[in-house]
Design brief:
single chain; alpha/beta; Rossmann fold; 7-stranded parallel beta sheet; 5-stranded parallel beta sheet; 35% helix; binds (2R)-2,3-dihydroxypropanoic acid
Length: 314
């Protein structure tokens, strides 16, 4: 019997699906991720590993596996896996792009609108009993989204989905990415993007070139009236530099779905700032999308173990 390890809490019906397909399944069943030791111990004689972004799959883990054929991740991001090392050991990698594009682009727009129109601040004001004045023309003034400039950094699937949404808001869209793309948006260099954008959205993956891409220098180049939106990976942003920029008025606001450390702690000074909207890494968190991610990642796992074509392979 072939053996697969699932190193995060996967929906029960997909565990059953794997068993029904004839696999021995060793599955972690807690929201707290397993230790490295647990993965190493169980992966030893496994044919496949289904992991998520909370599992760091490094050389040590890969070396512990004696007959692993595939690592399938329940995510589009793969910065938690030493991909090159796995590939050098002929281990295939599956991931879940496409199925989460729309859900993530929707959340990015939700964040953009929320921070521009002060939605969360307004909600907090009412709940804390501080809504104590009648309507006046200057109360809770936010920033108009319609007709503004959206600057997208990275033009992959999510970037393209953002372009579509931005058209509905009559926005001018500019973008910067490694190469020019066929897309209804204007390619500009990074400095131009930062100088002209009212909203800067990060749609890049985390790799050595994007780590702390948003630093003091980057933020200083943005308009003082601009907002930063990040639902990619927390480590793309130097949170210390962002906090200082938000406190000093270098930029107007930020909306973040991802953090340098997750879960982020109450000591994170970003939490204290009014001009920041925060969500807990929920870009792909809709019922429909998470089901599709489960299906794709399980099918990738099975195909990888059986030496067949995966749905999405790196
Ligand atoms: C991913 O898939 O990489 C997201 O961060 C979580 O859905």
């Amino acid at each position: 019997m072939q053996k697969v390890v699932v190193s995060f809490r996967l929906f029960k019906e997909w565990i059953e699906f794997l068993k029904d397909n004839g696999f021995e399944v060793i599955a972690w069943d807690s929201s707290v991720p397993p230790s490295k030791e647990w993965i190493k111990e169980n992966i030893k004689d496994a044919d496949g590993l289904l992991c998520s972004l909370v599992n760091r799959i490094d050389r040590e883990i890969i070396d512990a596996a004696e007959r692993l054929k595939v690592i399938s991740t329940f995510s589009v991001g793969f910065d938690h896996i030493d991909v090159n090392y796995a590939k050098s050991k002929k281990i295939r990698i599956g991931y879940t792009p496409e199925v989460l594009t729309d859900a993530t682009a929707d959340l990015i727009f939700a964040l953009l609108l929320a921070v521009a129109r002060r939605v969360v601040e307004g909600d907090k004001l009412i709940r804390s009993g501080r809504w104590n004045q009648p309507w006046t023309p200057d109360f809770m003034i936010g920033t108009e989204v319609n007709g503004k400039v959206l600057g997208i950094i990275g033009m992959g699937r999510i970037g393209r989905a953002l372009v579509k949404r931005a058209k509905g808001f009559n926005m001018r869209v500019i973008y910067n990415s490694r190469t020019k793309k066929e897309v209804e948006a204007e390619f500009v260099d990074l400095d131009t993007l930062l100088r002209e954008s009212d909203f800067v959205v990060l749609a890049v993956d985390l790799n050595p070139t994007t780590y702390h891409m948003v630093n003091r220098d980057f933020l200083n180049k943005m308009k003082r009236s601009a907002f930063l939106i990040n639902a990619s990976r927390g480590k793309v942003v130097d949170e210390k530099a962002l906090t200082e920029a938000l406190q000093s008025g270098t930029i107007r606001g930020a909306a973040l779905d991802v953090f340098e450390e997750e879960p982020t702690s109450l000591d994170n000074p970003l939490i204290k700032l009014e001009n920041v909207v925060l969500t807990p890494h929920i870009g792909s968190a809709t019922f429909e999308t998470r089901q599709k991610m489960a299906e794709v990642s399980v099918k990738n796992l099975i195909a990888g173990v059986r030496g067949e074509k995966m749905v999405f392979e790196l």
